[in-house]
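A.,

Following up on our hallway conversation. Structure tokens first:
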């Protein structure tokens, strides 16, 4: 009994202690928030104001243990956090609650408020990045780190986050630069972690009820469920991220991934491995874009899937050891079947085994097995390709006979219907080396009969598709290769098109091409996007081309016409499309002639007559050069419309604000097509170049070796006339060489200064002058990415003749007048001066020249840099004969210079540049190419061709 009594007494004491502790803890849970409410509230608000650059609005705040038990949490209710500029009208976060978990022990036993947890619930988060790299979540103040550290210490607020929890969030992410939009609904995230030996280890769970992903206006995910489990290690010292034990579940497809990201000052390197084990075809389709996911609900999909993807690469500048570009893909599908619920036949015995590697320029592809059966017809294929793109061993076999009517019924793919019978048997074995004219041994055929194709892009199908082609190469060279197209026919919108041809001996090509019919590219591109430059318009063909590509073209029998109407062409050389309003090409054996070819690009319009030669070589071979002679007439060409441009932010600064504005600016040098050898006899009524208008431009323009060469041209500009020769050749996307020889008579100096950028650099004194001048100058140099001359690269020499010029506020002569006491030198009127000069390495060297300012005779020589430094010597000859004179030295910057009486002036320092400049040898080579442009012969030949075209049209009418 005594023992039982003692036990009861002990248990009673324990219960009392437990009860006392519970009462104490419960009292503390009410007392601590009350005792520290004002202190915590002040410190958090002070920390927010010190670090946020945008406005945080909230309806109420509270502190409690019970909102996120057992954490002591300070919470803002009904929160709105504004975005940073220029997105202030958009909320970054709107939340029912934003809470901060407080370290209770730090709070009680020190004067510090340490935030270790953050909670966000019932929120809408909007993240925006525009195409200029500005983002709306740049909400932290840019302040000196030392100051921030001191302020933070003084405030008693410390951030030591070990948990982030987001509940019931809607997240909208929009990246205009990459063209990506991601919308997530019902997002719940729970991340926990902490620092361990300089590494932040973070484990997290993410669940999203619905996620939509749009890239380049295409829906890739819509309404998908996403679940992710990850364990990530952030090395805060070496700026690396280790991804370990990560799993993403996209609907029914589970993907594991692991790897590493290394972040450097100017770049990032990554090495990530993705794999899905024990997957299924059904799970794979559930993760496909929306229309296929919906389609899969009506399709029976069976089969096992294993896939592994390894990505290693980098962007920006990284150490040599991290400069790896490698992609590995392994895919295996076994025992697959596919059958729509309404279909009678199924794709059965689907097996696929593929392994591929792309490492830098090396290719290694292994398709060991591809086979399936449909309607008791088997399709089998294998492929092995290894090597570099220009030296590649290929071995491949494919044998197939597919009834496309049955396949269409079996799949019933969304937005796609097809019919016909497809038969193919191809064997390839050998080395592809185009530089050595080697092709693999090949024996095969491809045949499609009674074909049709319809998509959701257009209500009418492409019908009567027939393709019958045979490829043979019994040897291993271009010489032994042949491709015979017995028929390639189709009909669309009741417009039939038929064609056939053969190509034999690719080293010395024998060819035959026959084509007849109409093609409407506008509607055809709606059915299926064609891999052509032509995006819209109509073509009518009636051609018969036959011969050998290397024999004299006069021995070939090329005849027929190609008529164009409303053609729109898109090319990567131009940012806007080119339109051909109308035109007809006529094949005259070696020449493809045309007349009245109306072409427009933005506001520029031209009309062309002439002919092309070597057109088949140009069309069929990468090394083919298109030659021709043309006449070009134009009412207006704006040369700046051919410059690459992009929207960029420009800084606008005044005495109060520093703001950014969006401007469409030149972002590269004008590119010139390669593989052209053309001569154009030009007559342009108006040529615009920024603020300069050139009228009545006539001459010869050559296009060769990716350069433009102007010869024997005459023009009118700034109230004067000029003769102009020169060349232009881009060396990269951001630099180009130019050279010009101009002889201009009686130019309006005021208009020239206001409209010609180079005039301002070479003659800054013209800013305070009006009158008439003539120029005879040769100049070469390099243009930058804004199509402006890089001043240190300019080199040349020539003569400026002043006929009649009046200065108004010219600072240099005004200061000389003030220093010498001769009022006549202030804003004088001068005439008939000849100034010879040379320019090199950023220095303009003025040879000695003389002029009169009544009653004085002046002499000037010296140097001025193109950025405004002066070193000039002047002599003021005194009346009556100027035998006695006052020497004057002018030195300093053009904005702030000194005028002294003296005899010596120092030479200015030349300036070298790292920009690419043309060597004298290169300038001479380009000059010889310009001089070699065909002129009179070209014009005569064009006129003769136009008569032949008219004769052919006349004969056609008689028939």
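Then the amino acids I'd put at each of the 959 positions:
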């Amino acid at each position: 009994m005594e023992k039982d009594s003692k036990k009861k007494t002990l248990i009673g004491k324990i219960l009392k202690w437990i009860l006392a502790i519970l009462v104490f803890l419960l009292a503390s849970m009410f007392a601590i928030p009350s005792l520290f409410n004002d202190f915590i509230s002040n410190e958090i608000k002070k920390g927010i104001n010190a670090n946020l650059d945008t406005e945080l609005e909230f309806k109420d705040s509270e502190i409690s243990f019970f909102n996120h038990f057992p954490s002591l949490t300070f919470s803002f209710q009904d929160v709105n956090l504004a975005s940073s500029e220029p997105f202030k009208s958009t909320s970054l976060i709107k939340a029912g609650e934003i809470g901060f978990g407080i370290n209770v022990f730090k709070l009680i036993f020190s004067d510090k408020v340490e935030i270790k947890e953050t909670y966000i619930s019932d929120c809408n988060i909007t993240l925006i990045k525009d195409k200029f790299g500005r983002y709306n979540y740049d909400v932290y103040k840019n302040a000196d780190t030392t100051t921030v550290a001191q302020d933070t210490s003084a405030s008693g607020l410390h951030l030591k986050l070990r948990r982030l929890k987001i509940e019931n969030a809607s997240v909208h992410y929009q990246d205009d630069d990459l063209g990506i939009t991601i919308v997530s609904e019902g997002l719940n995230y729970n991340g926990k972690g902490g620092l361990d030996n300089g590494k932040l280890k973070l484990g997290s769970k993410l669940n999203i009820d619905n996620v939509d992903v749009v890239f380049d206006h295409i829906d890739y995910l819509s309404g998908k469920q996403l679940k992710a489990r990850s364990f990530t290690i952030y090395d805060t010292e070496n700026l690396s991220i280790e991804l370990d034990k990560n799993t993403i579940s996209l609907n029914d497809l589970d993907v594991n991934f692991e790897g590493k990201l290394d972040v450097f000052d100017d770049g990032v390197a990554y090495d990530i491995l993705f794999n899905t084990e024990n997957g299924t075809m059904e799970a794979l389709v559930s993760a496909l874009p929306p229309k296929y996911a919906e389609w899969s609900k009506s399709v029976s999909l069976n089969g096992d899937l294993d896939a592994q993807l390894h990505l290693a690469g980098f962007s920006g500048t990284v150490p040599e050891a991290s400069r790896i570009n490698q992609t590995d893909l392994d895919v295996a599908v076994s025992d697959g079947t596919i059958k729509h619920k309404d279909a009678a036949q199924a794709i059965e015995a689907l097996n696929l085994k593929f392994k591929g590697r792309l490492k830098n320029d090396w290719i290694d592809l292994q398709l060991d097995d591809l086979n399936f059966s449909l309607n008791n017809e088997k399709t089998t294929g294998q492929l092995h390709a290894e090597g570099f793109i220009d030296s590649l061993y290929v071995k491949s076999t494919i044998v197939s006979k597919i009834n496309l009517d049955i396949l269409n019924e079996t799949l019933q793919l969304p937005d796609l219907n097809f019919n016909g019978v497809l038969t193919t048997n191809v064997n390839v074995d050998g080395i592809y080396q185009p530089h050595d004219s080697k092709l693999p041994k090949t024996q095969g055929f491809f045949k499609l009969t009674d074909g049709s194709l319809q998509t959701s892009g257009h209500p009418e199908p492409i019908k009567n598709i027939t393709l019958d082609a045979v490829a043979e190469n019994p040897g291993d060279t271009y010489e032994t290769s042949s491709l015979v197209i017995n028929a390639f026919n189709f009909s669309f919108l009741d417009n039939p098109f038929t064609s056939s041809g053969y190509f034999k001996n690719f080293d010395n090509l024998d060819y035959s091409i026959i084509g007849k019919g109409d093609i409407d590219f506008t509607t055809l591109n709606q059915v299926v996007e064609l891999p052509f430059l032509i995006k819209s318009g109509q073509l009518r063909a009636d051609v018969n081309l036959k011969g050998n590509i290397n024999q004299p073209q006069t021995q070939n029998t090329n005849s027929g016409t190609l008529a164009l109407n409303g053609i729109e062409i898109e090319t990567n050389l131009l940012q806007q499309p080119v339109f051909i309003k109308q035109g007809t090409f006529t094949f005259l054996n070696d020449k493809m002639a045309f007349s009245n070819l109306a072409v427009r690009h933005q506001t520029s319009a031209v009309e062309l007559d002439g002919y092309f030669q070597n057109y088949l070589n140009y069309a069929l071979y990468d090394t083919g050069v298109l030659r021709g002679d043309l006449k070009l007439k134009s009412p207006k060409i704006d040369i700046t419309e051919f410059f690459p441009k992009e929207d960029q932010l420009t800084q606008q600064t005044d005495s109060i604000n520093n703001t950014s504005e969006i401007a469409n600016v030149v972002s590269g040098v004008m590119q010139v097509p390669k593989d052209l050898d053309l001569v154009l006899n030009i007559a342009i009524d108006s040529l615009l170049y920024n603020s300069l208008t050139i009228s009545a431009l006539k001459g010869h323009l050559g296009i060769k070796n990716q350069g433009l060469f102007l010869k024997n041209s005459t023009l009118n500009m700034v109230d004067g006339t000029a003769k102009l020769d020169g060349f232009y050749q881009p060396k990269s996307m951001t630099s180009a060489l130019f050279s010009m020889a101009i002889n201009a008579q009686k130019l309006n100096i005021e208009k020239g200064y206001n409209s010609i950028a180079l005039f301002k650099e070479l003659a800054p004194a013209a800013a305070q002058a009006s009158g008439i001048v003539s120029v005879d100058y040769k100049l070469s140099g390099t243009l930058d990415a804004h199509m402006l001359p890089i001043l240190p690269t300019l080199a040349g020499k020539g003569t400026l003749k002043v006929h009649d010029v009046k200065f108004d506020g010219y600072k240099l002569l005004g200061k000389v007048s003030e220093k010498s006491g001769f009022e006549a030198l202030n804003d004088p009127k001068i005439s008939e001066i000849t100034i010879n000069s040379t320019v090199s390495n950023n220095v303009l060297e003025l040879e000695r020249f003389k002029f009169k300012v009544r009653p004085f005779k002046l002499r000037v020589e010296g140097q001025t840099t193109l950025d405004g430094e002066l070193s000039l010597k002047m002599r003021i000859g005194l009346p009556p004969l100027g035998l006695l004179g006052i020497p004057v030295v002018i030195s300093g910057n053009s904005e702030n210079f000194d005028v002294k009486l003296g005899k010596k002036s120092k030479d200015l320092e030349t300036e070298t540049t790292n920009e690419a400049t043309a060597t004298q040898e290169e300038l001479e080579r380009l000059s010889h190419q310009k001089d070699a442009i065909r002129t009179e012969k070209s014009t005569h030949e064009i006129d003769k061709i136009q008569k032949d075209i008219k004769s052919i049209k006349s004969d056609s009418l008689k028939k």
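Residues 143-154, 653-657 have pLDDT under 50 and may be disordered. Curious whether your intuition agrees with the design.

B.
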